[in-house]
Design a protein that fits this description.
Helix content: 10-25%
Number of domains: 1
Radius of gyration: 23 Å
Number of helices: 1
Shape: elongated
Strand order of the largest sheet: 1-6-7-4
Distance between the termini: 45 Å
Largest sheet: 4 strands, antiparallel
């Protein structure tokens, strides 16, 4: 019986692969979503307190949003600033999380989200008061 089912599936897949059909694929445009600039102004004396320096920026509540990408950002000892830009096509970014992990923290200064004609751009700026190497995880969520 199992052999018969496998044979039927194989033949049906083979036959369907040889059927010639004309199909048209149309790209569905991603609608424009708003853009936002979130500013954080940390104080240097708060540099080692709790989760100081984490940044979360959101353009609204979207129940269907899902993770788009995750990236680890690192710096070297002596660096005082971190800037990073990332672009993604075919998505609208709705939320960005920039979270510290490790011994030394960066202080999120600004996160900008720009959505335009199916391409999203995110730019982050971080101050490093300790001048020690930091590690941060950048997470993008969207539609």
């Amino acid at each position: 019986m199992f052999y018969f089912l496998c044979l039927v599936l194989f033949v049906s897949n083979y036959v369907s692969c040889n059927v010639s059909t004309n199909t048209t694929t149309t790209a569905v445009p991603v609608p424009d979503y708003p853009s936002i600039n979130c500013d954080y102004f940390p104080k240097p004396e708060q540099a080692d307190e709790g989760n100081y320096g984490d940044g979360i920026c959101s353009i609204g509540e979207y129940p269907n949003e899902r993770p788009i990408t995750t990236k680890i950002l690192t710096t070297n000892d002596g660096d005082t600033h971190l800037s990073h830009q990332i672009r993604v096509s075919g998505y609208a970014v709705t939320r960005v999380k920039l979270l510290n992990f490790g011994r030394y923290h960066g202080a999120t200064n600004a996160i900008s989200i720009s959505n335009h004609q199916g391409t999203a751009s995110v730019e982050v700026h971080v101050d490093i008061f300790s001048k020690k190497g930091i590690r941060m995880v950048l997470e993008l969520y969207g539609l």
